[in-house]
Each structure stands twice: as C-alpha cells, then as structure tokens.
Amino acid sequence: MYLPDYNGRSLVNLMSSLGLNFGRDNGVYPECTALAAVDLSQYKNIVLLVIDGMGHRYVQSRDGLFRSHCAAELTSVFPSTTATSISAFMTGLAPQQHGLTGWFTYLREVGGVTAVLPFRLRGMDSELTQQGFDLAELYQHPVFFDQLNCDSVVVSENWILDTTFNQAHTGKAQKRGYDDLGGMFDQITDCVKHREGKQYIYAYWSQFDHLSHVHGNQSEPVAEHYLQLQSATEKFMAKISDTNTLLLITSDHGFIDTTPDKCITVNDHPIFMDCLSVPLSGEPRTAYCYVKLEQHRNFTNYVDLNFSDQLDCLPAQTLIDDHYFGLGEPHPKLSERIGDFVLIMKENYTIKDWLPQEKPFFHYGVHGGVSELEMFTPLILLEA
Predict the structure, then answer these.
(1) What proportion of the chain, given as a percentage, has pLDDT over 90?
(2) From CA 157, how far away is CA 216, in angstroms rounded?
(3) What domain range includes position 346?
C-alpha cells in the first residue's frame, strides 16, 4: 500500500512550489522537495503539462526523452484518480480541502452519487445545472489561477474547455482550446512566443488515459502513443528555444491493468447490496460504502467472509485520521463524502455495481488504488 506524501513529494506540493513562485500562500502544504534546487523565478514562462494516466513506472520502463529528463517521482493524491487530482491542479489543494473524493462522489446537497467532473448524477445524461444547481456555489473551491500575480493560460481540449467544471475552476486565466496533439503544442508555442511578461501555462492531455482504459496500459496502442508524445514534445522544445521557458511534465495518476475475472460485481451479492443505503461511489479501485446503521455488522462480516483476499475494508474515518486525503483542516463535507466503510482493492482487483439505467462496460486499465503503479507520477523537467 503506497499512500500520498503530502509533506513534500505529492502533486499538491508541486502546486505549492508553483504557487509560491507566483505569490500564492500555500497554507499547510510545503513546497515540492524535487524543486528545492530549482530557481523558478528565473523563468519567464512556466508550463505545466499534465498527461493524464502516464505513471512514473511507465516512464521508467521505456527509454527516451521523458525518462532521460525525469527529475523525480511524485505521489498522486488519494484516491489516485482524475477527479481528485485535476481538482488539486485547479485549486492547489488536496482532497482533504477540496472535498471531491473520486469520479463518483456522494453529494448530499444534490441528493445522490454524482460524477463530479461532468456534474451529473450517476446514471444520468443531463447536467445538474439543468436542475438549477450551481457547480461553483456547490463546490466552493478557490481558483489557483486567481491567486497568482502573473498572467495565466489554460490549454485544454475543445470538448472540455468550456465545461461547467472548467468554467468554475479557470477564473481569470485565458482559455485556449485544441483538437489534437499538434494543436495543443501550437497553442502553448503561441503563448510562449507572443505574450509579454511572466506567465503560468497549464496544459492537459487526456488521450494516454483513454487508450490505457480501453486497451490496457501495457498495450501496443498506448506504447505507440507514448512515442508520439515524446516526438511531439521534442519538436515543441525546438520551436520554443531561447524563450526562457521551463516545461514541467507530470500526471494525475498511473495505471494498473486488470482482467474481467478480477472484477467483483456486487449485483451478484444480494446480501452485500441489501446492506447499502446508496449505490457505491468513489472508484472501482477504492469504493465508498454507505451502510445502513443496523447492517454494519452484517456488512463487515460478509465482506470479511467473501472478499478478504481481494480487498481491505477500513472504517472511513480512519482514512481521514491517517491523512490519506491530505493535511490540515478537512473540508466540512469530507466525512459525509466517503461513506461508512472504504474498500481498497488488493493486487489488480476491482469492484463495481450497476444501476438499472447503466450499460455495463469493462476497462482493462484502471486506477484509483494504492498500488505502486497507480500512485507514483513522474516529474519531468525541460528547459528552453
């Protein structure tokens, strides 16, 4: 079991270093130890490129630009998944403070388990904004970009650039969209070459994550895409030579591959299902269970008897006490967003339930757990 190191080696500490360089108060989270010897103030442009799903172990297993310029390994946050990590990049805070605890988070305010990035109830296609809910008011997150004393830019795919989540988390930053890998680097190049003054550029690339889910992280399509990423990055660095730019490349999490026989489908376990008061939330690798009060003993007994080889079942409050989610004062809603018990999967097991309106699917690559492959992300440094 590998947990986040919020004392200097996590994604949150990376954001602390970047924020401090641009005048932000970091609160309880110290600077990133891997950047202790780097004078960030000397650069005109600092670019943070987040390649979704590109774990540190993946980078270290393959030769090339990324491995040769990898300065350190960082830890993700808990759980090691996009919703918690992207929220950390956008707010500069750990889940302990931003309160989003997985792709699916139970929000009492809207009355159900919610996919927090697309902002819709689980199993539903319509955004909660159509029911009158305001994401910014509901999440109440600080915007990282608004706390900086420099110009800032967000570079993201066109299909997510103006989503409700992005609108609530980009603040004063200029938003630039793209359709493909070349388009992303073109947008960054234009900012670096033609904008005056110091600036912070945040760029996000999702395709590595998508291919890893569909084909498996160790698949040939992912390997081919990885080579494309390195080649495009090399060309980009050549284009922006002598611009006094620091490019930092990292990820929100890594991946572990699995197989259908390693998935526990709880719909096949009616005793388990009858103990729950709401559907599972969190992730297939870290599931939050809201258990009827009178069923606590039945639930833990059933889990111990049937699933002890596949998962660890922990009281939810233990995870807050042991700093899985972060340091300092917790979000006022954190406790109610992680249920009564948390199931943390062992090896490459997953757990899933299906609502009647959901169409079952299977991902060969998964994340959200506490394995070495999922938890560690690279920190790659390139200068131009």
Answers:
(1) 96
(2) 23
(3) 260-366
DSSP state, residue 282: E
Residues 145 and 285 in one domain: no
Give phi and psi for 313, each to the nearest 5: -110, 115
172 lies in the same domain as 160: yes
> Which two structure tokens, joined as six digits, stand for 74?
């960082």
Strand partners, 176: 155
Stated as kind and residue range, the H or E segment containing 203 is: strand 199-205
The secondary element (H helix, E strand) that includes residue 28 is none
* Token output for 247: 């490019």
pLDDT at position 169: 96
CA torsion through residues 90, 91, 94, 97, sign: negative
- For residue 194, what are its two tokens? 């033609």
Q: Residue 176 carries which side chain, given as an amino acid letter?
A: R
Residue 297 in tokens: 């003993």
How many structural domains compose the chain? 2
Range list of H helices, 111-269: 135-139, 158-161, 164-170, 181-194, 207-215, 220-239
From the list 59, 79, 106, the residue with the least C-alpha distance to 1 is: 79
Q: Are 224 and 22 in contact (CB under 8 A)?
A: no
Banded model confidence at residue 26, pLDDT cuts 50, 70, 90: confident
Taking only the tens place, the pLDDT of each residue in 166-224 is 999 999 999 999 999 999 999 999 999 988 899 999 999 999 999 999 999 999 999 99
287: helix, coil or strand?
strand
Q: Are residues 69 and 218 in the same domain?
A: yes
Give the bridge partners for 383, in sequence order.
Answer: 246
pTM, whole model, 2 decimals?
Answer: 0.96
Q: Are strands 263-265 and 350-352 parallel, antiparallel or unpaired?
A: parallel
3 state DSSP class of 179 = coil
In the structure encoding, which two tokens stand for residue 170, read together?
A: 């980009």
Residue 113 tokens read as: 């388990």
* Residue written as token pair 């919020």: 6
Quote the CA–CA distance of 158 and 177 in Å, as a whole number. 5
Give me 128's structure tokens. 């909660």
Phi, psi of 372 (to 5 degrees): -60, -40
**From the CA atom positions of the chain, what is the Rg in Å?**
20
Residue 350 φ then ψ, to 5° = -130, 165
Q: H/E element holding 58?
A: helix 56-60
